[in-house]
Fold each of these.
Amino acid sequence: MKILVINCGSSSLKYQLIDMDGEKELAKGLCDRVGIDGKIKASTADGRKVKFDVDMPDHTAAFYEVKKLITEGDLKVIDSLDEIAAIGHRVVQGGALFKESVLVDEKVKEGIASLNDLAPLHNPAHIQGINAAQEVFGKDKPEVAVFDNAFHSTMPPKAYIYPFPYEYYEKYQVRKYGAHGTSHRYVSTRLNEINPDYKKVIVCHLGNGSSITAIKDGKVIDTSMGLTPLDGFIMGSRCGAVDPSAVTYIMEKENMTPAECSTMMNKKSGFLGVSGVSSDMRDVEIAAADGNERAQLALDIFYYQVPKIIAGYIVALQGLDALVFTAGISENGANVRQGICDQLEFMGIKIDREKNDGLRGKETQLNTPDSKADIWLIPTNEELMIARDTKRIVESLGK
Ligand code: AMP
């Protein structure tokens, strides 16, 4: 069974075609700058690649490009769209409405649209993507929505309620929802396959956006992202948690609108904001090594905040069986894993320097034999998780 996984942003469409017999990726690509000056980058698992500019006025046009890419020309991997059994869509905000992945119908679309206010950049784009897919693939092709925060829906109210006047929760559903849930679920599912005895687990998804999640008996009890992916700790260009009064103070001083302030906190802060160098941690590391003090400060903040969150979650879990690293920064950065674990060593959580050094993107157990908790690197695969959910739901339709 072949599944097409789709991630639509407001001006982009990312796709991955996965053959579920063997869970093999066949092709992937990005249709970027949809509605602007269309740019496509695509590749196949066997190494064929293309990069070109093409006008894509909307998501429907982008889907026609995807159709062409996978069924015709140099990157052809299937003969016709009939070979695709279903489409799985990543949906950022499922609010409290969607606690698991669902087959898309009109009611589900209405539900996703009803959460637009909570994810104004994402949910409307997902609906556009779902409608466009229906237009190109036909109404009979099953579509499944996989929600980025569904895995976090097991959090207890003490973890997700913000101590504002309660009416704002009731009126606007303002609360912690978390993000990266599909990644955290993939990693914790894999960890459970490795060793079902791990009951108290912390997953560090450290990438361009970063979040840390505490998982007890397979269920999330807390996560560092909040109402939006801005919460938590220093990220590429996001500030993470700060004193809320600092936000209103800056808004007043700089005469900023809420939208301008949101852009500042999401796009101009974090590694980029503190270092003034880049949102990419590798650039910041190079600058710091060259003696750039603000770049060093950005790294110092990261290595201070991340272990503090891990330590807080060890308290929330009342112990720790396994600490897991995943996503770009911590799959590739051996020094990053080392730097974080160095701060945890006094608690008896010990990384094996030799196993860790130079290791990139390969599932590996990293702790020393005498460590009080196990440490793992498990590469994430959100697309595969979406494809698995889609397959499961589609198969259940025939029963
Ligand atoms: P992701 O969001 O998971 O795709 O992660 C992408 C981010 O990983 C990039 O923005 C880089 O900052 C980061 N990254 C990749 N390789 C390394 C590395 N070796 N050390 C530190 N950060 C890295």
Amino acid sequence: MTKIRCAIMEKLDRRGFLRASAIGVSAMSSVLTSCGGLRYVRSSMDGADIRIDRRDVDAPGVLVDGPDGELPIYLRVLGPDQFSALSMRCMHRGCQVESVGERFVCPCHGSEYAADGRVLVGPSELPLVEYRVLADDTRIVIHMNAPVARERRA
Ligand code: FES
């Protein structure tokens, strides 16, 4: 079953929505576009691996439930046979980041990350955790026990 979630929109009540609208139509529309564009796909665990049916994945990417109730993984399409998998857990204090345009924004304290997980704006100093991904003709596998080595913010 496909699920669509958006923590930012879940946190906005009517008054919050009106206040957020006051910050500008373009900023708000980018949040709304992001919410509508993030789609969850079915996945299954196999040991420490997450398996996804390749037919369920389309550009720019999809969300996959993290293992054991952890925050989701953003599986991004980089090319015909290239994917990246980023944890949506902010490396500052663990809130779920949201996809806004080509960036990820944390609703808790404002950290921003590039599409590849690099820190653009603090307070976070660490990039989003990235996991190795392998794909064949029918499935995509995210290896949760194989994080990619990343550097701290300079
Ligand atoms: Fe994300 Fe603090 S938890 S910026």
